[in-house]
Amino acid sequence: MPAPASLLINAVQGQSDQRTRPVLLGRDGQESLAAALSRVPDPRDARGVRHRLPTVVGLALAAVLAESASVYAVGQWIAGCSQRTLKAFGARVDPVTGRYVGPDEKTVRGLCARLDGDALDAAVGRWLQRRADAAARAKARVGVRPLRDRKARRRAKAAGQRHRRASARDRHRPRLPQVAVDGKTSRGARTRDRAAPHLLAALTCAGVVLAQCQVPGRSNEIAAFTGLLTPLDLADHVVTADAMQTQRKHARWLREVKEMPAPPDLNFPHVAQVFLIERAVTVKGRTSYQAMLYVTSLTAGQADAADLLAYVRQHWGIEVLHWVRDVTFREDASQIRTGNAPRVMATLRNVSVSLLRIHDTTNIAAALRYNARNNSRIRGCRSVQPPWCRSAPRMSS
Which residues in 186-251 belong to E strands, given as ranges? Predict the structure, then answer.
């Protein structure tokens, strides 16, 4: 198997000749997060920059993967990093002591507040999509070996990579891949003068966040829908959204992207099927009934009843993402409010969850605690390489 597809770095820093040598991450030469972050414009004055943007954001992401829920906690995690970890992320060398020095909390906070959120989301979204594709190809090529060793099973459980229940493994898989769209408000970032930012995200059925954008202050999710999905390759994909996005212009836009024939005699454009789902919900002994009506442009030949039900169930994965950010990362309790920092931290949380989901992590909280106990797991990305995969070559300095 090639090297871990989600490795955060792709270069060995601090060589004797002070040059950076690239390290390919697989047989197809997939780029690393550091290379993707190098495309994000640095808003700082070049004359005062001591830490490169990929280094600062990469270390911040590593800290979030290690259960850091605030910028202050991110600064503390970086301050406690080992020399090997700082070297792996491209930290600068102090000319006096000769030791690697990471950015402090003030540097991280200042950069996050001024960073271009759209550019950051676009860069990491494209990178995550390539990571997910590479991981899927590697899994299909290598397969999965059962954990026969007792210690390996304990390590997998500690890293949040427990085996899924049989009911989840045997769930019906629809024929076309899915992208779910929904929004979430970062309530903790609300101030007296500014409303809390509302972020709209696009999520795959595997739990990978492909895109995110901030909804303008006096608008709603409807205006941001097409802008969010425009950079994505939606060919042969099914896009699901809630009732707010059931707009005629959205239906026409999606059909133009997908280039499929449309029935001409329906009141709503491009509707091929209408289906009803009835739910019975029991809470504390009280049962309530719901009837939900759905419309889709998929024909009966493209999606039968089982496919449509699977798409509806998979759409709730984006609600799971919001729950993880609220409960595990304590996003709504966060008081990060300066500039674009709330959005940047939300992006880092999305990337953290996506990296873990790419490699079938089922317990995000357990995986974060597992990473927090040893920062070398972040440096080598052991946390996102499932224990049941075949051994992969390690990166050497």
Answer: 198-204, 209-215, 238-240
